[in-house]
Amino acid sequence: MMTLKVNGREHQVDAETDTPLLYVLRDDLKLNAAKFGCGLGQCGSCTVIVDGKAVLSCVTPMVLLEGKQVTTLEGLGTIAEPAPIQRAFMEEQAAQCGYCIPGMMMRAQALLQRNSKPTDEQIRAELEPHLCRCGTHMRILRAVHRAARLMDTAEASPAANRSAR
Amino acid sequence: MNAPVIIDRRRVLAGGGALIVSFSLGSALAQQPDAPAAAAPSPPGSLKTSPYLDAWIRIDANGVEVFTGKAELGQGFKTAFQQIAAEELDVAFESLKLTTADTRLTANEGYTAGSNSMKDSGTAIQNAAAQVRALLIAEAARRLDLPAESLQTADGAVIAPDGKRLSYSELVAGNMLHVQAQPTSKLKDPATFKVIGRPVPRVDIPAKVTGAAAYVQDMRLPGMGHARVVRPPSYGAQLSECDTSAVEKLPGVVKVIRDGNFLAVVAEKEFQSIKAMNALAAAAKWNETARLPKQDDLPNVLTSLPSQDTTIFERGNPAVGIQKTIEATYTRPYQAHGSIGPSCAVAHFVDGSMTVWTHTQGVYPDRQGIAEMLRIPPASVHLIHVEGSGCYGHNGADDAAADAALIARALPGRPVRVQWMREQEHAWEPFGPAMVTKLKASLDGSGKIADWNFDVWSNTHSMRPGGAGSMLAAQHMAQPFAVPAPKPLPLPEGGGDRNAIPFYNFPNARVVHHFISEMPLRISAMRALGAYHNVFSIESFMDELAIIAGADPVEFRLKHLDDRRGRDVIEKAAQAFGWKPDQKPPPDRGYGFAFARYKNLAAYCAIASEIEVNRETGRPRLVRAAAAVDSGQVVNPDGLINQIEGAIVQSMSWTLYESVTFDDTRITSIDWQTYPILRFNSVPESIEVHIIDRPGQPFLGSGETGQGPAAASIANAVANATGKRLRNLPLTRKRIKEAIDA
């Protein structure tokens, strides 16, 4: 049994220590947002935030996560009360199939937490590990810019103040 | 109300006293597509094949539900269909429920493919909704003893002049109507549209951006086991030995399944199944055969294979004089759909009945294949579409569904989820076929094209199921099903010859389709089929001819095109881009233009692009693109823009980077390292999409219309930037560098 802190809650997880975080999130904790895309750390679909940093959960074994704080997209907000990054992706309609989007959002969230006013170049560089096959890139970039603005303004919902650790 | 309705039959739903409005199209149902002219016309869209209106619209005490036999693949049509139904029924958009492809609930609309969803299903829903509304008004008129013309509809109710409201649910529940629909419907005047034509936010996005369950990958049924398949290392490999005893003892392993060359393992937890899969793969010994062609020599290999040659178009005018003739050969490699989420399916076998949740594009044909594979009646197989990652054609979806069914049969009563690994998707998906085109054309004395010859060599572009033999699991079983003989897809839509016939007016033209039945690599439908390469070829060659004629590429195209809607998108894209006949791009940059009408019968699309080429490295970069699209009546403009933006970006990736690689035995492009696609450092600065709306015109679809024009526009811009014409896809940095240095 291992203790894993996800989205502010502690979970006792019965998984072998070499199990990648992705499978614990999806299989044990029944969370959907982190996606299996490659299992090789090549596409970014599985990205979550660990202690404030974007991490590829498909290649991060449980043994490295003792005592750390994991945040998934579910931890940022809900449909009824979306976080700024979620609102921004909804408002920009930044998805086609949407499969890669949660991973993109988590890395963007991590970026915006440490740099609230990133340049377009910084956003593109940050999202480099992420693949999107539908070609939604232009909208994804617009959504991250919008999220930066939303986080900066009072119009953001109360969930705005919730940050991922 | 114009459309006279004849009462025909009714059906009361058990429970809740609700009623399904049921219409029969009587004589129209019996019509064959080639029926004599005297016969009544058949109703539009998929009403032709599923004429009962309750296949599309059902109303009960809970409200209005809309049904489509098409599968949402990320195109966003769920939202568009809901808009159409809301508009024609006068029902609040938010109040509608929409159910997609399900063999027990929806019409059989075949595959969700060919940019046909709006044309087939959208048209059916529009007409069904209009006829249901007419029917409800007629019923209200009867009950209120008022003329139908005096009644209006709004927000799910019929409203009398005195303000009295009769809700649709009341009207349906309280009446026993027998109704036969007409082949034509009284549709609303587009000028009055309130929902159609608006950028309504997509209904599926909130769940997708908050981590709600949205994909088949997210399904968790009680007691569900996690399965992984061990695929052969190469096509045709035979499993010679496999000691499964050690694998069976691994933690969590429920069962190892071996059926001929089909090998799979089920475990309690997902990562346990992956570990067991790895152990099983290590234990399996395969006999492989070196049978793949030489990748470097692919164009010659293809044109040397036996082919069935058909002249698909011929036009002659010997009066035209010829001044100058040129020839060119264009090639396309095998390319991968490359879904970001590898294929997945969930299956559950209970009391001889198989249920499969799948992201297939065709629940009905897939059901037929699975039933044949399991040797049980199709009625015992239930397929339910659940979204997966975007597929862009026939990827591993159907194979994963068959895998799940075969594994679930071995574990009756227990739901099983099969998830393909990245390497499996890359190695085993049916690729977009490699193609070769040879073009030869002449200019007359006035710089116009005098004759045009176009030869295309291609496999079929659909090996989709219908039969079990199209599915890997059925091919690999101990008693295997043979891969069905490939067939060319019929024109006018075509397959390898899709868009091979020029849309321009040439006085002399000849187009030959060389259909190759031998398939060295596993192939099937990929977004736009042959149109991607044919439009790339035609539109590249148009530029080659324009250069010789000393003409501006846009003017040159307009000079050969009478079609007004085609001319409109060309002019719109050129204007939006800022295209000028005497334009000079900055150093190391180039401008390119291309146009096509998809399938020569669907949406019109023109794209102008600007490319930057690094002369030192050869690296190309799409700087910006401006597109114009005419897809008929627009239902959701933002959805249409999203499709075209995506098409440009995806086609750019195919065009600049992508080819499946292989040695003499195995596919070697098996992940994103070995099959690189575009990343954010290659994303353009801007993409503008301009819509030319055609109110009241038929829906033309949009999913595939951008692929070909984007490729050719980019290729023409590369030629403009470098002065060198590249005719072999992809236009890689290496090829561009070699062309610059040559």
Question: Can you put this structure into words, describing what you see?
Answer:
- The complex is a heterodimer of chains A (165) and B (742).
- With 165 residues, chain A is an alpha+beta fold.
- Chain A has two domains: 2-75, Roll (Ubiquitin-like (UB roll)), CATH 3.10.20; 84-160, DNA polymerase, domain 1, CATH 1.10.150.
- Helix content of chain A is 32%, strand content 13%.
- In chain A, strands 2-1-5-3-4 form a five-stranded mixed sheet, sandwiched between helices.
- Chain A is globular.
- Chain A starts with a strand and ends in a 13-residue tail after the last helix.
- Chain B has 742 residues and is α+β, with helices and mostly antiparallel strands.
- Chain B folds into three domains: 11-203, Aldehyde Oxidoreductase, domain 4, CATH 3.30.365.10; 216-289 and 337-428, Aldehyde Oxidoreductase, domain 4 (2-Layer Sandwich), CATH 3.30.365; 435-461 and 496-741, Aldehyde Oxidoreductase, domain 4 (2-Layer Sandwich).
- Chain B has a seven-stranded mixed sheet, with helices on both faces. Chain B has a five-stranded mixed sheet with strand order 14-22-21-20-15. A four-stranded mixed sheet of chain B has the order 23-24-25-26.
- In chain B, helix 2 (77-89) packs parallel to helix 3 (117-144) and helix 16 packs across helix 17 (707-722).
- The radius of gyration of chain B is 27 Å and the shape is globular.
- Chain B starts with 10 loop residues before the first strand and ends with a helix.
- In chain B, 55% of the residues are buried.
- The model of chain B is unreliable at 1-37 (pLDDT under 50).
- Chains A and B meet through helix 1, helix 2, helix 3 and helix 5 of A and helix 5, helix 7 and helix 16 of B.
- Chain A: It comes from Bradyrhizobium australiense.
- Chain A: Residues 1-76 form the 2Fe-2S ferredoxin-type domain.
- Chain A: GO terms for molecular function: 2 iron, 2 sulfur cluster binding; metal ion binding; oxidoreductase activity.
- Chain A: Pfam families: Fer2, Fer2_2.
- Chain A: Keywords: 2Fe-2S, Iron, Iron-sulfur, Metal-binding, Oxidoreductase.
